[in-house]
Structure formats: structure tokens, C-alpha cells
User: Which sequence fits this backbone?
């Protein structure tokens, strides 16, 4: 226990917060095979596969010049985002870094709006103003991708503060890379999160490299989750290639955030198969290293598990793949038919129209002039109808791990 | 009307807006138990409790005390607060006020005595406010709190004890509305924050010589009430911009640019600027005085645009 405020504290009575606790570190890195509903398991598989296929298609479109700028692919890391987000409630929040396609999809964003955003279309989820690194989806509680390494960590604490002020039992997830733990913002954020008991789960996507710099060359402490001990924040590492393990770790952390209002730092060990962005030839690591990591592909592993433990067949999984690919093609068509942003929209979305601004001054400034609309809710489209789920479990059959998903491309 | 100091006026604005809207809260160093490093937040912790008046650690990537230290938070202000709305295609609002002392203080040397208004005014997405009187401070802070855009609200610590009339009834002043602080027909002095006080002193000297200076205070640098400046310059034909910031790429050049473009036909002389010296703020009193715009330098500039010697 922290020392209680001295009784002669001038505003002792106004201190309405419970005293901060001293946190005990968690013991180990259990990976439990929690039970899962069979349909839910299939939905998770589908989500990971959708992210994989979405990004494979993006890579093609990038090469064709349809997508510009930076394109950071999440391929290889899907189990972290999907597993974590699958443990959230519809009213929870998330905020993430620029490698953000997977989170938006896992949180239910329409791939058509996301692909349109990537191609700079007016129908894009951020109206063509954000691109790959900025998939905001506020109706889904998704505060998007931030392009500044570590820059969104203070914002996550802010979201947690807002939750505490309103007194709800919501939770915020915050995803970032192994590079961000070396930024000052990480340390400030963990400190205040513990100090003020903020319900935020911080998730390091440790893919072993920040651009071309391995964590060995960047972090004095190699177990990144141990950094939480400096702030008395509960911590845990987890195999980020195993969606069941991720779910178990997140289930515990989210529960702690929701019930006890305490933050957690989770280090998910994962790997990105592609370069840092599309322009990275990846000379800092060997082909053998990449190939060996691909053997524990999260989609492949989970597919195998679905067949071994949940009695799905390869044909079931193939049908999902087919459906996901069709959904992607639909997104491509939607994007091709979408208009580019009109030039007038250049000045929109800078300011919020406000009765507290002198209108004569505002009229002289194009950005203020354009601030005529209220906050915009992204376009919504009729949802994609996935192919009918497979019928009730067929008789168990020996499964070969030959899922087409997750094969190295 | 009540006679209040700027400190009291700011405190009233905070108290009234926090009473009016339970979503308003304060984060900052020493804002609670210490009652504010400059006592602006006096009494607020006791009234509103710790979740709404929160003492923060010195964690300044995200928070700050005075604008001298806001440089640590520049990334949060410039790359986040100012841009989230745009990058999200209008989905996100950032209804936030960054307030605190800015500008020259007294003998605290280079790192604690400087004005950054030109930096913030440069950023689309921000609103920048710089009041010069207790009334303006209260009315503008109330608007800043109610407005849903990120507002940089720069106070001046030397003005905290300045007294002035403040209406007793509920009022607010729109952001982007300038004010004539002294009417005159011979020369326009454009100034904000403490430079208004310096310019009024200069105007007094000029009046003794028979020159009537008009002191125009835009009060908000972004958005800018350029009309009030243009109207004055069209009347006087002469314009001097006074600022405590550095001359090089300072906000005064923005005003000079607009005036030469919009009032070209009315101008009888080039627009002149009286600014701080282009050096870091020195400590010694004599040097500090030489660094800052003084009434004499404003008088001199007025003489120049009036072609009087
Ligand atoms: C503040 C800041 N500094 C530098 C960069 C450039 N940069 C972009 S990504 C990156 C590497 C980050 O690596 P990591 O956090 O491990 O995430 P990963 O890309 O591996 O998922 C760097 C240095 C940036 N975007 N922001
Ligand atoms: Mg990394």
C-alpha cells in the first residue's frame, strides 16, 4: 500500500480515488487451450484468412501502382489482432499503430471501405485522407492506426481515463510494435496507467524487428514484457502465433481491466513475413529465418487444430477460403467503381464547425469555410453475405495439415 | 462590472465551464493540491474532485506546465491533436484546450522566457488564442473550452496580476473576433497579449505629440480577424505590427503579408514590425530590456511610417 495522504493534507477530502495498489507480477506464460464454441472457432479462422487474403491482394495492387505510399503488411501476425479483439465487447475500444489493416478487419470493418481507403477513394473509411496507416472506424470503437511510433500510447491512456471518468466497465486495447517500447511515450504511459488504474491492455506485437533493427540491437532487456515491472504493471508473454494462447492471455488481461481497472502489458511473440513495408528488401535477416518462422504460421496451425479437434474438414476450410477470395474480389470491384475525392474535400475535416468561432473570420479561411458538416460517420454498405456455414460436424476424419492458407507466397 | 485580475478571471472561466459541463476536466502539473503553479486553478480540486482536476507526473510528452515545456508535447499537439480529425475523414474531434503561460517572463533566461505563438499558428487544425485583458481572458477561455477544436490558449505570466473590468453576467467572446483597444486615426498598431500593453504605452507617448494611434488586438491568431486590421489600416494608411516573438518567420510577417496585399492602395508607408531581438532571451535586466519591444521602439517605428523625425 502506498502511504495514505497525511491527515493535514489541505484537500484530503477531495481525494476520492482509492489508493493505488502495488501490483504483483504474474507468474508465467501459460498457454491454455480454452474451450471455444465451434462456430466461433470457424469465425476466427475466417477472420485471419480474410486479413491474409486482403493483404496479399493489397500487395498486388501496390505493385500495380493502385496503392501508394507506405504499405505495412500484417501477414504472419494475424493471430495477435484477431485473438485479442475476439475477446473484446462491442462497446470496447482499440487504438493501434500503422500496421493496422488486421485490427480494422477483426473489429468488423467492411473490406470494401478499407480497400477504397488504400486506393485513395472518396468512399474509403477515412474518405481517402488517411491511407494504409490510418484506418479509423469510430462507430466500431476503433481509434485507428497512428503513424508515429509510440505516438498513440498516451492516447490509449486518455481513452482509459475517459472510461474511468464515465464510470463504465469498458476496456481499451492498444497495439504497438517492439520498436515503440524504446520511446519515452511508452514509459510515461505505463506509469500513469498504473498510477491512475486505467483499464487499458497494452499489447506489444514483438515481430523481432523495428524496420531493419532487431530487438537485440535495440532493447537492453530482451524480454520486452519485463519492462512493465518498472511500473508495477501486470505482465505476460504469449505465443503470438497461437490464437488460442492469445485469446487466453487477453481474456485474463481484459477481465482484470474490466473488473479491477488495472492495466496489463502483454508481449505477443510473432513474426512478419514480408518486409517492413513494401519497399523493404529485408536484407537484415536470412531466408532460413523467415522460412523457419513460417512453419508456425498462425492460420496453418489453427486450421490444423480445427480439423483435429473440431472435426472440420479440409473442404470446409477451402470453402471459407473461396468465400474470402470472392469477398476480396468484390472489394476490388467496389474500389474500382468508387470516385476519387473531389478537390473540394481538400479543405474539409480540418475543423469542427462551432458556434464559438467568429463567423466573419472563419469565412476568410478555406478550412474554416469547409467546416460546415458535423462529424461524419463512415459510409456503411449492406454487409457481405458469407457462404453458408458448414453443416453440423461430419464424422471425424484424420486431417492432414495441408491447409492452403498460410502457404508462403 | 467587477474589477478582476487576469488570474481571477481565468479561474472564474474554468470554474463556470466545469460547473456547466461535467465532461470538462483538467490534467496538469500542480493544478490540484498545489492550486496551480500560477494559482489559476485555485480551489478547483476541492470543488470538482480528483478525476476532474488531476495532478499529473512530469510526464510531458502528453501534458505540460508552461508553453516553454510544450516542446516535449509538440508531437501530441501537432501530429495528433491537430490532425486526427483530418486523417480520419472527419470522424474524430479533439475538444481540448492547452492553456498556460507563454511569452517573456522576468529574468528567467532563455529556456523559460520565449513565445511560440508563431509555431502553433502555423499548424492547420489548431486554434491559437492570446488574450491581453482580464475580460478577454475570461470570455475567450470560455469559448475555447466549449469549442470542439484543439485550442492553444497562451496566457502571459506578467499579465496575471493585471486588473480590468469583467462583466458580472454570463458572457463569452467568439474565437477569431478582434478588438480595438484604443481608437485613433493616424497609425495602426497591431498587437496581441502583452504587446497590447506595450503598444498602449507607446500610443500615450504618441498622443502627447498629437499622433493618434489605433491599437488593434486580434486576440486570436488562428483564425485571424483580418477585417478589423484592414479596416483600421485603410483608415490610417500606416501599420506597425508589434510582437514579443522573434522577427524571423514570426507571425507579424503573416499580418504584413495580408495587409500589403489587401490594403496596398491605402498604404502610405511600408508595414513595419517591432519584435524581439533574434537571439535567445538573455538573463541580465539591461539585455532583457533590449531584447523585448519597448514603447520607445514602437514610437520610433510609428515615426518612421509617419515620416516624422
Ligand atoms: C516517431 C517515429 N519515429 C520513426 C518512425 C519511422 N518508423 C516507422 S516504423 C518504424 C519501426 C517500428 O518498428 P516496430 O515498433 O517494431 O513495429 P513493426 O513495424 O515491426 O510492426 C520506424 C522507425 C516513425 N514512424 N515515427
Ligand atoms: Mg517490430
Assistant:
Amino acid at each position: 500500500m502506498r502511504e495514505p495522504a497525511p491527515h493535514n493534507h489541505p484537500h484530503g477530502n477531495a481525494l476520492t480515488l482509492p489508493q493505488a495498489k502495488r501490483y504483483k507480477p504474474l507468474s508465467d506464460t501459460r498457454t491454455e487451450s480454452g474451450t471455444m464454441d465451434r462456430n466461433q472457432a470457424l469465425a476466427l479462422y475466417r477472420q485471419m484468412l480474410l486479413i491474409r487474403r486482403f493483404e496479399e491482394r493489397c500487395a498486388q495492387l501496390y505493385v500495380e501502382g493502385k496503392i501508394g505510399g507506405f504499405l505495412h503488411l500484417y501477414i504472419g501476425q494475424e493471430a495477435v489482432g484477431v485473438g485479442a479483439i475476439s475477446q473484446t465487447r462491442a462497446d470496447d475500444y482499440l487504438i493501434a499503430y500503422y500496421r493496422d489493416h488486421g485490427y480494422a478487419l477483426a473489429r468488423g470493418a467492411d473490406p470494401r471501405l478499407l480497400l477504397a481507403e488504400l486506393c485513395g477513394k472518396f468512399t474509403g473509411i477515412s474518405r481517402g485522407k488517411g491511407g494504409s496507416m490510418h484506418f479509423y472506424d469510430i462507430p466500431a470503437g476503433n481509434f485507428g492506426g497512428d503513424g508515429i511510433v509510440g505516438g498513440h500510447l498516451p492516447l490509449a491512456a486518455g481513452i482509459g481515463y475517459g472510461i474511468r471518468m464515465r464510470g463504465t466497465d469498458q476496456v481499451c486495447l492498444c497495439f504497438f510494435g517492439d520498436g515503440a517500447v524504446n520511446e519515452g511515450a511508452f514509459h510515461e504511459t505505463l506509469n500513469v496507467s498504473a498510477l491512475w488504474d486505467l483499464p487499458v491492455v497494452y499489447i506489444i506485437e514483438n515481430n523481432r524487428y523495428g524496420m531493419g533493427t532487431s530487438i537485440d540491437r535495440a532493447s537492453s532487456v530482451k524480454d520486452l514484457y519485463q519492462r512493465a515491472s518498472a511500473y508495477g504493471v501486470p505482465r505476460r508473454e504469449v505465443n503470438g502465433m497461437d490464437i488460442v494462447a492469445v485469446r487466453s492471455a487477453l481474456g485474463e488481461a481484459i477481465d482484470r481491466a474490466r473488473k479491477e481497472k488495472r492495466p496489463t502489458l502483454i508481449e505477443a511473440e510473432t513474426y512478419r513475413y514480408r518486409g517492413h513495408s513494401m519497399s523493404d528488401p529485408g536484407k537484415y535477416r536470412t531466408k532460413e529465418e523467415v522460412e523457419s518462422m513460417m512453419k508456425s504460421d498462425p492460420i496453418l496451425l489453427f486450421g490444423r487444430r480445427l480439423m483435429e479437434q473440431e472435426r472440420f474438414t479440409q473442404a470446409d476450410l477451402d470453402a471459407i477460403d473461396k468465400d474470402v477470395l470472392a469477398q476480396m474480389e468484390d472489394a476490388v470491384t467496389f474500389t474500382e467503381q468508387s470516385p476519387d475525392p473531389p478537390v473540394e474535400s481538400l479543405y474539409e475535416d480540418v475543423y469542427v464547425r462551432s458556434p464559438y468561432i467568429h463567423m466573419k473570420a472563419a469565412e476568410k479561411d478555406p478550412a474554416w469555410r469547409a467546416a460546415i458538416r458535423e462529424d461524419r460517420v463512415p459510409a456503411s454498405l449492406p454487409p457481405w453475405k458469407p457462404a453458408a456455414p458448414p453443416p453440423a460436424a461430419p464424422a471425424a476424419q484424420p486431417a492432414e495439415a495441408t491447409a492452403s492458407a498460410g502457404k508462403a507466397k | 462590472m467587477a474589477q478582476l485580475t487576469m488570474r481571477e478571471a481565468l479561474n472564474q472561466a474554468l470554474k463556470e465551464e466545469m460547473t456547466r459541463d461535467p465532461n470538462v476536466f483538467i490534467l496538469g502539473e500542480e493544478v490540484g493540491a498545489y492550486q496551480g503553479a500560477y494559482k489559476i486553478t485555485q480551489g478547483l480540486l476541492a470543488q470538482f474532485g480528483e478525476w476532474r482536476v488531476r495532478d499529473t507526473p512530469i510526464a510531458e510528452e502528453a501534458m505540460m506546465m508552461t508553453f516553454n515545456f510544450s516542446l516535449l508535447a509538440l508531437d501530441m499537439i501537432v501530429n495528433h491533436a491537430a490532425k486526427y480529425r483530418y486523417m480520419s475523414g472527419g470522424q474524430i474531434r479533439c475538444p481540448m484546450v492547452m492553456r498556460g503561460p507563454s511569452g517573456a517572463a522576468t529574468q528567467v533566461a532563455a529556456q523559460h522566457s520565449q513565445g511560440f505563438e508563431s509555431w502553433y499558428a502555423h499548424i492547420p487544425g489548431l486554434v491559437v488564442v492570446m488574450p491581453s485583458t482580464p475580460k478577454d481572458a475570461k470570455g475567450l477561455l470560455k469559448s475555447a473550452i466549449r469549442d470542439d477544436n484543439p485550442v492553444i490558449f497562451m496566457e502571459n505570466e506578467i499579465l496575471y496580476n493585471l486588473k480590468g473590468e469583467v462583466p458580472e453576467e454570463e458572457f463569452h467572446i467568439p474565437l477569431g473576433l478582434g478588438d480595438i483597444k484604443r481608437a485613433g486615426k493616424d497609425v495602426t498598431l497591431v498587437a496581441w497579449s502583452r504587446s497590447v500593453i506595450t503598444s498602449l504605452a507607446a500610443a500615450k507617448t504618441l498622443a502627447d505629440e498629437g499622433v493618434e494611434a489605433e491599437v488593434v488586438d486580434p486576440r486570436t491568431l488562428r483564425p485571424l480577424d483580418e477585417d478589423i486590421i484592414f479596416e483600421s489600416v485603410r483608415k490610417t494608411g500606416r501599420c506597425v505590427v508589434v510582437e514579443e516573438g522573434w522577427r524571423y518567420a514570426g507571425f507579424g510577417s503573416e499580418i504584413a503579408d495580408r495587409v500589403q496585399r489587401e490594403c496596398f492602395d491605402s498604404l502610405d508607408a511600408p508595414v513595419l514590425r517591432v519584435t524581439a531581438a533574434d537571439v535567445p532571451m538573455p538573463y541580465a535586466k539591461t539585455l532583457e530590456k533590449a531584447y523585448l519591444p519597448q514603447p520607445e521602439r514602437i514610437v520610433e517605428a510609428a515615426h518612421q511610417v509617419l515620416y516624422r523625425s
